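If you are new to this repository, start here. Below is one unmodified record pulled from the training split, so you can see the exact layout before writing a loader.
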Amino acid sequence: MGMSTHIVAFIPDTDKEYQRHKKILQACSEGEVSLPPETANYFGYELPEDYLLEDKLSVNLERGVHYEDWRDESSAGFEVDLTKIPKGVTKLRFYNNW
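And here is the target side for that same chain:
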């Protein structure tokens, strides 16, 4: 059995930009209309789907963009470049899957 380690970042639901786009998404959902371009770009989807609200709170970080593998003689892990973490992130989660 293998194991893999991952990193995910979280934006709090109190983030001002998130709250603004959330209100727009909810209004579009209620009115059964597509999202305006700026909000569609923010969520990465043109239709006002409720699951986007939860998905937007987590941001998958990419190896080679946000972090690199790190090793020395007897250790291995990740080195996260904090300057490349998306705006609004307040929490990082490191987790293992097996």
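Two things worth knowing about this chain: The mean pLDDT is 89. The beta strands are 4-10, 58-60, 67-71, 76-80, 91-97.
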